[in-house]
UniProtKB/TrEMBL annotation:
Keywords carried by this UniProt record: Ion channel, Ion transport, Membrane, Potassium, Potassium channel, Potassium transport, Transmembrane, Transmembrane helix, Transport
Transmembrane spans: none
Gene3D superfamilies xref list: NAD(P)-binding Rossmann-like Domain (3.40.50.720)
Annotated organism of origin: Acaulospora morrowiae
Record flagged with keyword Transmembrane: yes
Protein name: 3647_t:CDS:1
Superkingdom, natural source: Eukaryota
GO cellular component, one term: membrane
Membrane topology note: Multi-pass membrane protein
Residues in RCK N-terminal domain copies: 6-87
Primary location group: membrane
Molecular functions per Gene Ontology: potassium channel activity
Subcellular location: Membrane
């Protein structure tokens, strides 16, 4: 990591406390803070100081994905909308979506003209190409960079 990222605080807002093992792994990075709360509630986002964030990452709740596939991305979309309404204009928000149909709801919804199948159309959306949205299958690639 470069020196500017090394000193940047990382705030993790979560409903559940991390296990001691997870906490130990994450604290090795330094400047990691855990706040118990829900990113769906604005008061918790304010407690996490999201309004001064430079970057925000919204991860999909895997338990919701198993319970209802129709609404798997609903919470992530609501969180992204809340963050966008509270943050400065230069805050980069990255949202994990389980379904590519959801991509059109993040930022610009127009696709780049391509007469290929739906899968390619989802990947041609400006929100995906600009890095504002990613699929769960691409998470490993993102974390390795």
């Amino acid at each position: 990591r470069n020196s500017s990222c090394r000193d940047m605080p990382v705030v993790i807002l979560t409903d559940s406390n991390p296990s001691p093992y997870e906490r130990h792994l994450l604290e090795k990075f330094g400047n990691i803070h855990f706040i118990k709360g829900s990113p769906l509630r604005r008061k918790d986002l304010y407690r996490a100081k999201v309004e001064s964030a430079k970057r925000c990452v919204v991860l999909c709740d895997s338990t919701r994905c198993e319970q209802s596939s129709d609404t798997a991305d609903a919470a992530s979309l609501m969180i992204a909308l809340n963050i966008n309404s509270l943050c400065m204009d230069d805050c980069f928000v990255l949202v994990e979506c389980m379904y590519r149909e959801t991509f059109k709801m993040i930022r610009e919804s127009d696709t780049v003209k391509n007469k290929q199948e739906d899968y390619v159309q989802a990947l041609m959306r400006p929100s995906f190409m600009s890095g504002n949205v990613f699929t769960s299958s691409s998470l490993d690639t993102i974390l390795c960079q």
